[in-house]
């Protein structure tokens, strides 16, 4: 009680939670979505990936049916660790770029310039962003192959090869 400091444990000791007690840190909200099948994207323009398969979504903050984006819920502003990967399905040489959009604008881009013979390249990265309540993040892909190309989705051979996820790490 009061406004004093509570110290639990000491240097070198471990604090255990009783059975049934849930630890709730700043690691929520958290989400991970993936493509459940190959996904075609047109050439020459960034295309938002429409993730319909949620691996998990702790706060129901990822819209997997209409806007295909994560929106920071009420009371959950803070620093977020975001990560993504996209894998090409049999592409040739050219440029392959993945973007994280925040509130409809490009925030981060990761690219790979492929050479002939590198037909299954992937782009992946992670970033920490400060997000406010109502901010939303989306995953986009661009390529310059001259026609529609496919990204790899889930398969028993490749597991989840194109995905997008994140979680809150601080305030």
User: Which stretches of 5+ consecutive residues score pLDDT under 50?
Assistant: none
Largest sheet: 6 strands, antiparallel
Task: Decide which structural class fits the backbone.
Answer: mainly beta
State the order of secondary-structure elements, H for helix, E for strand.
EEEEEEEEEEEEE
Report on this model:
This protein is mainly β. The chain is built from no helices and 13 strands. Strands 3, 5, 6, 8, 9 and 11 form a 6-stranded antiparallel sheet that branches. Strands 4-1-13-7-10 form a 5-stranded antiparallel sheet, with no helix packed on it. A hairpin with a 2-residue loop joins strand 8 (94-102) and strand 9 (105-114). It is elongated, with a radius of gyration of 19 Å. The two termini are 25 Å apart. 24% of the residues are buried. The mean pLDDT is 85.
Which characteristics define this entry?
single chain, 171 residues, mainly beta, six-stranded antiparallel β-sheet, five-stranded antiparallel β-sheet, 13 strands, 46% strand
Quick structural gist:
With 171 residues, this protein is an all-beta fold. Helices cover 0% and strands 46% of the residues. Strands 3, 5, 6, 8, 9 and 11 form a 6-stranded antiparallel β-sheet that branches. Strands 4-1-13-7-10 form a 5-stranded antiparallel β-sheet, with no helix packed on it.
Task: Furnish the topology, listing elements before pairings.
Blueprint: E1 30-34, E2 39-41, E3 47-48, E4 53-57, E5 62-63, E6 69-71, E7 78-87, E8 94-102, E9 105-114, E10 122-131, E11 136-143, E12 149-151, E13 163-170
Antiparallel strand pairs: 1-4, 1-13, 2-12, 3-11, 5-6, 6-11, 7-10, 7-13, 8-9, 8-11
